[in-house]
Structure formats: C-alpha cells, structure tokens
Amino acid sequence: MSRIKEFNLPDLGEGLTEGEILSWLVKVGDIVELNQPIVEVETAKAAVEIPAKWAGRVQAIFHPEGTTVEVGTPIIAIDTDPDAGPIETPEAPSGAAGDLPTPSAASLAAVEVAPAEGMVEPGLIGGPAPGGRTAVLVGYGPRTTAAKRRPRKGVVPAQTATAAAAAPAQPAPTQPAATAAPAAPVVPAPAAPAGSNGHTATAGTVLAKPPVRKLAKDLGVDLRTLTGSGPLGSITREDVQRAATAATEPAPATATVTAAASFGADREQRVPVKGVRKLTAENMSRSAFTAPHVTEFLTVDVTRAMKALDRLRKRREWRDVRISPLLLVAKAVLLAVKRHPMINSTWAGDEIVVKEYVNLGIAAATERGLIVPNIKDAGRLSLRELADALTDLVQTAKAGRTSPADMSGGTLTITNVGVFGVDTGTPILPPGESAILAFGAIREMPWVHKGKVRPRQVTTLGLSFDHRIIDGELGSKFLRDVGDFLADPEAALLAWT
Amino acid sequence: MAKGDPGSTTRSRRAAPRSRKGAVGDPELVQLLTPDGERVDSVTGPDGTVYRVDFTDEEYRGLYRDLVLVRKLDAEATALQRQGELGIWASLLGQEAAQVGSGRALRPQDMAFPTYREHGVLYCRGIDPIMPLGLFRGVDQGGWDPNEFKFNMYTIVIGAQTLHATGYAMGVAMDGRTGTDDGEAVIAYFGDGASSQGDVNEAFVWAGVFNAPLVFFCQNNQYAISEPLERQTRIPLYQRAAGFGFPGVRVDGNDVLASYAVTRHALDNARHGQGPSLIEAYTYRMGAHTTSDDPTRYRIASEVEAWQAKDPIARMKAFLEKQKIADADFFAEVDEQAKRESVHLRERVLAMPDPEPTSLFDHVYPHGSPLLDQQREQFSRYLESFEGSAH
After folding, report:
1. I need a labelling partner for B143 at 20 to 30 A (CA). Which of A69, A137, A161, B247 fits?
2. Angle of CA points A14, A20, A26, to nearest 5°
C-alpha cells in the first residue's frame, strides 16, 4: 500500500459533499509529475483541475467521466515507485480510462448519482445545493447529513464514575459527560464547593474578568489577596487599581523620604497626579471654590471626657473594645446634630436638603493618601456600635480595602488632625457636605480650673461650615454643643438624651 | 540581498532611462517599470512627489527572487488545497509585485496589518511561509508572533484590520514614536472590496483626524469576489483619500519598483509625523478569489489575457535580462530554489500534526480559567466515551 496510493476526492470548496468528474487529463499507465493536473472536477461552486498529489504512474482510474462522486471517495490510484518492478497485487491495470478496475470497498460504496435538483441551477446562490442544503455565497451552511462517528462505548456512566473517582475535583459524577457539557451557565462561586472543599482555595477560583486579570498582572497585584466588590464577589477593575495604588503610592509622610532619592539633575521631581491624589485635588478645589467656608475654633478642657473614657475601658462589657477620644467626638457631633439638624444638610442650588440620617465621615490618612469613609446612619448607633464601626472603618482603611460605597454618601465629617500632633486646622468641606469638624491634639496645658491654674487636658476644635446654609449663629451653637459634651459628657448626656 | 531593506545604497549604473512625467498609458499611475521591462527613472505623482528607486544589481535580483519564490509557494498552497490538504486558500497570483514591493519597503520597526491574502508581505517580514498553511489546514491559529515579526495575524473579516491598524497607529503617535528617521510607521492592507466597508471608511476618518502614522495600502485587484470595481466606486479609489483629508496615490501594483518607491515614501511620511496616506496598488487577481470560487463565471477570458501581458515577474525578468543584471544561470538557480522550497513546504505541511482536541481550550486565557478547566475535563470524558478511543 505504501507504493500504490489512492487519491480521495477532497472537499474542494468549504463544505461541498460531491463533485462530478468532467474529464480525465491522464490515462492509466501515464507517468505524472507532482502537481500535474490529472482531472477536471465540477462541484456546485466551480470547475477545477486537481493536481496530482504524488509523482508516479497512473495505476487505476476508478470513475468514468460524467460520474458524480462523493467527497472522500478514491478516484485514482498512483504507483509512486513505477521503476521498482511489477506490483504483487492481482489487480492489473487494463490500460483504458473507461475500463474500471475494482477500487477499495469504500470507493464503490460511495458512488452515487447526483440528487435531483430543482429548477435553479445547482450551486447558484439561493439554488439547491448537495445534500438538500441551500447555496450561500461562501459555503453551504450547516451539513444536514448525519455525521459518521465511532460508536459510543456502552458503559458511559461507569466510565464517568471511574474518572470522577480518580480525580476528585471533577463535578457531579452521576451526570453523564454528554449531558454535562451543555449544562446551564456555571456560576463558579456556589458551584466550586460542590466539587471539593479544597477547590475554593485554588488561585483559579478568584472571580475576575480577563481584562481585570490582565490589569492585575500588569500592576503586580495578586488577585487572591483582594476582596471583590463586583457581582458575586468578583474583583473589579477598581478593586485592582485601589490595591495597586495602595501598594505603590507611599503615605504622605514617607513620600518626602522616598522622593529625596529620585530627584533629577534639575533637583526637581515630577510626581504624576493620579489616583487618590487626583481625586482629592479635584474634590478640594471644587469644594473650596464653590462653598463659601467659614471656620470657627473652640478650645475645650477635655479632662473629664478622658476620665470618662478610662472608666468606660474598665467596664467588663467594654473590655475588648478599642476606644479613643475620637469616639467621644463622634458621639458629641451626633448628639449636636440632633439639636441642630440644619448642620447636616446639602446645598442643592435652589433648595437645601436637610438629612435626618447622618453618614458620619472620618478622614483617614492611609498608604494610598487621604480617604474619607463614612459610617452609615451613625445617628442610630449605640455608643458601643459606634465604637465597633469606628474600629472597623479604620482597620478597613488601613488595609486598603475601603470600597467606593464606604466612601460615598457622607453627610458630615470629622478630621482627626490631632493624631499628627497639631492643634487644629481650617478643614475644607467634602463636596456635598455642609460642615466638617477638625479635632486637634489633646495636650496637657495650664488651664484655669475652678479658679486656679491647673494642668488640664485641653484640645482645640475647628469647625468649617458652608455659609450658604449655616450662619455664624448656628455654626457657633453647634460647635459650642460639641465642646460642652467633651467638657462634661455625663452631664450632656443627661441633659440632651 | 539583505532582507528588509533593498533600496538604499549605490545606484545601478545600468539603468539610465529618461525621466517622465506621469506614466505610460495612464497618467494617474505611478510606474517605474513598464510591462515591457523598460525602466523609468523617476515619476512625478499627482501631488508633485517625485518617485524613484536606487537599487543595486544585487537588490534588483533579490526582488526578482522574492517574486518568484512567493508565486511558487502560493501555487504549492493552491495545489495542496486541491489535493485536500488545506481547507481553503486565497491565492495572491498576480499581486506579487504589490506585496513584495510594499513588504520590502517596510523598515524593521514598522507594523503591518494584513488581510488573509498577504502571503508575499508575510514572506518579506521573514515569517516562515508554512505559518499561514497551518491556519488554512485548520491545525493552528496562524502561529507567528505578531510582536516579534511586526506582522499582525491574518484578518478574515473584510476591512476590520484597518481599524485595528488605525488604533495601533494612534497608539504609536501617542507613545511619541514618530517624528524621527527611526520612527515607527504602520501599514494596513485591504482590497477594493473592503473599500466599500464602513470599517475602512471609519478608519480613514480616524486616521485622518488624528494624523495617525498609517499607510492604507489598497490592492485593487478589480474584483470583490465577483463584484467588479465599477460597482464599488465612481471615482478612482485613491481619490477618495482627498475627501478624508490625506494624500492618495495610484501605483502600478504589478510594478515591484514603483510599489516599493511609493510605499517607502508614504511610510517615511508617516514615521516623520506627516500623517496617513492611501496607496491604491492597481493590479489584478489572476486566480480565483479563493479556492472556493470560480472566476470564469463572472469575468471574461480576454480581460485575463490583457492582464497576463502585464505580469509582474515577466517584466522584472525582461528588465534584468535587458540590463544584463542577471543571466540564465541566475534565473535557473532561482527556479530551482523555488522548486526546492515548495517541495520542502509540501513535506512540512503533510507532516503537520493534528492538534490535540483538548488544545482547543489552551489559548483562550493566558492562565486558564476554572470554567475552561471544567469544559476541558468534560470534553476529555466525552472523547473517552467513544470506542477505540486513544484518550
């Protein structure tokens, strides 16, 4: 067989099933060269010459001119080594194209007459095509004939079960493979644990769209370390960018240190404005130049408040709660808002929106820069809940996992500049808010207490407010209330609640 | 001849023809080599640009060798399709000069966006000519690295690559990689049929407005499958460029020298930040649109014969002979090389392994995905379910 090669009629044009032999260009006994035209075949699309696939002598021609032959059927046999002597097969060539020898069994079986076609010339667009299909410009659409396939093995479920047992990560073994394939769209998050417990721990189960994965790869972010904020907990582009910014943008304090190393020859460094820096800049400019700010200051003796905090820490039910003076400031603000609701409002052009709920923003310096997450509806929280919310907010921010939702919708903000050791500031309003309280450092200072100069713990509060909404009187009353609470929390609580 | 840059060094002393305005026969056609193999020293294009080439004898012979090899390898691929070894093949027969001329005009840093017929350009980019055969045999996706060879994957969708090229070229400009002698230029290949596509016209708009460093290289082979040029346009295609605000020129696409000169000029303009241009390489598809097509159904024999007389290889051969740049030994040696390489190509195509059925899942995502892992698993088990399965 290696010497005699049979040539099967190929699919000459993208999905054809048959062709008519128009004319043989060679006869049995001819010596043919590689790629020498040997036969002209007309398909539904074109009449084409077929070049010889091998050089050699024509051994046999299986179909006369005018025959329609199915694709895949042998049409010619070529002796590829004609000089090697006689062939051992009994099938001797007869020397005439019309005198047909017996080809291999397959070729005989496949000979058939062209199916009756309609009035339209076969092969023209819209006309009938072989196999009952309709001709289109390119190809003939899907096949309608039944595909020939190897038979299926008898014991499919057993096979699957064995395979599944061997590989525990596979899905439900009771489902036969063939029906498993077109199963409903997989929702990986719930589906994964069904296969195996270990599955969720693999890197592959992180949900993220390919462009997001690419971005993460480019930015060097390990998706497994992120908590997704998208649908089904999938990781979004924003999640990745936030993580990348957190990893690459140093905190303001360290920025100056690292910057020193990267000054160019001109002793200037150009830091691209992007991410949190850019957002902060945009927000601050917008706020500073649209809302007319007024800032007032109040210095308060908070010694009693600090003592109250100490007592609180000693209580059994507060033992494992992290509390700081910020908690009391937050409580003071929330109580004062109840007494002066107009503080918690938004300038909306032709109206003022006063809010019953307080989404209390806490400005936080993080690795990524300044962010202002807020505690939703903080006015409804008990002191304990407020303490937990503050702790949670700070830890989330420090870990760089603050979500956009955490940062939107703030109504009133506290900025705790005291942690940096300064006394106070004139904060700029977050856009859409009407007041922001700066809380300075608590210092031991000489203070007149009960008629004598005593060392007392003192802090300075700074309140900026939008003068379009809040006049000096209201701002002052609000700041005074906050101060009163911090000066004597117990009394204020008794008096106001 | 050094691949990639044939037209620079010393000028040939043998060719000393006259300078002409316009070109023989068609004043709109830039031509440096007539169908009879007569050299034209320089030609002034419609916008006053003077086109000329200065090749060494070695480089002239190199271009001829390219043309012959490209045609022979293409013919082998056509034969392989007829023998059932390729699913389909889009032959470049007749368009060799347009492809080799423009392909050799590319500098190494230039990026090309081909259709599915740019086998000649692919060859000039130094890509193994077997690569597209794997694609049309259905055993791989093309296989070459577009970044390594600066030659994008074949695009089957008509005209889509012009938008890809425009975006890429705008990126080149935004990266600041234009404006110098070693700047990057981009070339987008398409045909006369594609010129009717929305994509191509959108690409013209964007490239024009954003001054993209892009050369639109239209091989006008006169037919969009069966639709003749007169049903694609009422004006010469190159004149459309004016409406989009960049220059257009028509070149004799069967003249490898003119194709080189015009493309090199347009690419250099682009790389220097002068913006896009349109080249209409006026040529003829001597074969079928693809192996699935029968051109005798829609065009007449006399038209084909008329173009046969303008054959790109015949005129180059006549020129080399007349100017005694090459002798019979050279031509025989080139033919021998072409035969050798085509036989080698055939052997390698026939030896191409069928891909593993499950490799279908391998290149969807660079690092896989759980869903694909699951599908691969299911597909493997499906394959295993057949009798006599090797899996």
Report:
1. A137
2. 110
